Amino acid sequence: MNQELQAELVSLTHELADAARVETLKHFRGGGLQTASKLTGGFDPVTVADRAAEQVMRNLIEAARPDDGILGEEFGNKAGVSGLTWVLDPIDGTRGYISGTPTWGTLIGLHDGTSVIMGLIDQPYIGERFFGGFGKTSFAGPLGAGHLTTSQQQDLSQAIIFSTFPEVGSAAEAQAFNAVAQQCKLTRFGMDCYAYGLLAAGQIDLIIEAGLHPYDIQGPIGVIEAAGGIVTNWTGGPADQGGQVVAAATPELHAAALAILAAHV
Prior knowledge:
Layout: H1 3-27, E1 35-37, E2 45-47, H2 48-64, E3 69-72, E4 76-78, E5 85-92, H3 94-99, E6 105-111, E7 116-123, E8 128-133, E9 136-141, E10 144-146, E11 160-163, H4 171-181, E12 186-189, H5 194-200, E13 206-212, H6 214-226, E14 230-232, E15 243-248, H7 251-261
Parallel strand pairs: 3-5, 11-12, 11-13
Antiparallel strand pairs: 1-2, 3-4, 5-6, 6-7, 7-8, 8-9, 9-10, 13-15, 14-15
Helix pairs in contact: 1-2, 5-6
């Protein structure tokens, strides 16, 4: 892929994130936000902000690059013919969004049919954006801008580990997560996609999750891999289609986590 096309794709990615910021902030911490559940007998929330943010991103992609595919959480799959697919999660962490916590974010990934080639994590309320792709990274937030590099932590006993939900997934998956977490220095929960940005920024060291969808993880994959980290499934294979995911700052931490998970997978 030539540099001109790369620059076009990077520019469009930031344009999408800017547009989604406007739509999500319109409703964040506002009164009267209508919330529906996608599940019968459970709670998987969706709001007008989720749908509006994805729709505005889809409109921009279709105007700028009509031959590209689009896969989004709210409006499904649109097949493309260019070989590139934009993977969108307008609000990753809708539970956090409706609770007023600033841990949700907009995720944008770009997939070339083989792997993720670019990703972005945006937290509109704080104003932080994490980007990675084509061998480059960038970070912007209240404390300034710069580049992303994962931590150099190699010792599992000194690692900070995150997962979104304490139950992780199934009972067996929770047991597997806990087996790794017991070997770590600090375990924290509840950050949704924001944890992946923290890993890319070198603030934390390890994330283990289960039950993810492609739109949950492709944006973070692009960011973390560009920052020097590793993202795979629990057996070391590709994680771009979701499911069980391990994101690690270093090869050493990744190998240590996989070795423990192997007894439970």
